[in-house]
User: Which sequence fits this backbone?
């Protein structure tokens, strides 16, 4: 499986994903599930993917082709996607990715129906901001439609989301500072890593402050990362202490 | 859905279940999911159920009939279950319940195949102790087979188990005192209640100390229960404080 979480607070956006993919428990691999694009000072976008890896990769290829074709000034055919780097809004960006998702699945629908009891669907989290708009965060479904994070639900999760939800439910609001949101994302991931084998290190972390149109942090957190290990240990100790003290 | 958790520590067993059942989100009801039997000083048994309610109730009826028939000295037919109150071991008790589970599902299998895309399966947690044996805790599958809690995995969960697993993974070992195990069960439930609508108050709690062959606590915890609310609030505060202090 996968665990990806996106948080939207007043100060900006935080994105965190794991890198484990598996087909059964005996076929485990490591794939990047977080992808970013920037036009510095104008727009910054982050996409995270869960679900069918072939579908996710095909969607990414279509997005990349759309960007490259437009950048090269190539006349694009009916099948080509508009570039997400020149889309007039985050909403339109989510639409374009949704269209790519449906396009890919349509291509393989018959084969899936005939040959497979698998699922060709993927789910994605898109977040970012462009000049003239606010930071926005979307969850895009396999059907291509999407929902948006808002005041009442300032975070979105895909994949193995249940283990890491209680901590977010408790601490995250729009008023949470960006650094705290970053910490909450890491602790939410830590709970998931401890309780579910199908989610695994390393992690990809990206932080996008509001109105910066550029990432303040883009890190791969390796299993031996001292900072993450310290945070994880401190949280375990703090949780056990908290557990001991209450009655 | 449902959330039930059973914990086995050196000092005894703790059982906690919610009471919400639902068929879709617009058909919510309250049903007891925890059932207990005692022969004081000789044996004490607890059964918790998740999954298809009709199957769970039919299994319980069969168990009750088996107990009553044997108690009345009635000659039981081929279909009747042996009494779980005179079973020679906890292992045999788990087998009997597994047999009841298969019996019920066989009866409705054809109808389910023809008419329904629902699932007739149920999953159960059985725990208890009888004179001459140790406390034991089992998870019984719809197929009638079962696994047992052991040193490395001293708790078993059924239903919506993911939200409440991280806290148990962190604090529960066989050496956890019984009172702490009780607290951990309640906090695991609290996390689940907050994050998942399909799990709901009131709760049923039963504590069985080792070698007591009688329950030290059997409580229904109502939504307005001051003790549970205080524990829940204290845990929220402690978690938020812990979250603030670590870095």
Assistant:
């Amino acid at each position: 499986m996968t665990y990806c979480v996106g948080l939207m607070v007043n100060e900006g956006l935080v994105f965190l994903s794991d890198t484990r993919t598996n087909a059964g428990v005996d076929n485990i691999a490591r794939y990047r599930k977080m992808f970013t694009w920037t036009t510095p000072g104008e727009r910054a976008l982050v996409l995270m993917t869960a679900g069918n890896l072939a579908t996710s990769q095909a969607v990414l290829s279509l997005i990349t082709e759309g960007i490259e074709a437009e950048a090269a000034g190539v006349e694009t055919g009916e099948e080509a996607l508009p570039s997400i780097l020149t889309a007039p809004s985050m909403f339109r960006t989510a639409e374009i990715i949704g269209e790519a998702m449906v396009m890919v699945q349509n291509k393989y629908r018959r084969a899936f129906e005939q040959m497979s009891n698998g699922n060709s669907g993927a789910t994605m989290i898109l977040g970012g901001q462009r000049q003239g708009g606010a930071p926005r965060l979307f969850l895009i479904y396999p059907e291509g439609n999407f929902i948006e994070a808002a005041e009442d639900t300032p975070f979105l999760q895909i994949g193995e989301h249940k283990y890491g939800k209680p901590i977010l439910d408790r601490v995250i609001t729009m008023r949470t500072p960006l650094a705290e949101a970053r910490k909450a994302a890491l602790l939410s991931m830590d709970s998931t890593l401890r309780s579910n084998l199908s989610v695994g290190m390393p992690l990809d972390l990206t932080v996008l402050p509001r109105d910066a149109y550029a990432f303040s942090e883009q890190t791969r957190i390796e299993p031996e990362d001292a900072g993450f290990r310290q945070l994880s240990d401190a949280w375990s100790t703090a949780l056990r202490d908290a557990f001991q003290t209450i009655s």
Observations:
- Chain A has a mean pLDDT of 92.
